[in-house]
Design goal:
By secondary structure, this protein is an all-alpha fold. It has helices spanning 3-35, 43-56. The longest helix is centred in the N-terminal third of the chain and has 33 residues, at 3-35. Residues 1-28 form the signal peptide.
Length: 66
Amino acid sequence: MTTAFRRTAGRLAVAALATTALTGAAIAGGQAAEASTSCKSSPIVKTFNAVLAVRTGSTEDSNACR
């Protein structure tokens, strides 16, 4: 293995670990934020639902608080 290849492999490994850590933190934060809301129409849940609606198509949530 050349020095450049080792350097590139190391950078890719560090990037993968950082991505995994940030994803885990985002998921944990989202779950904590959702657990602390008592209404499904809270700003955090609305934002999360809007992002998912763009990805999967919009659906009406009949259980949302008003």
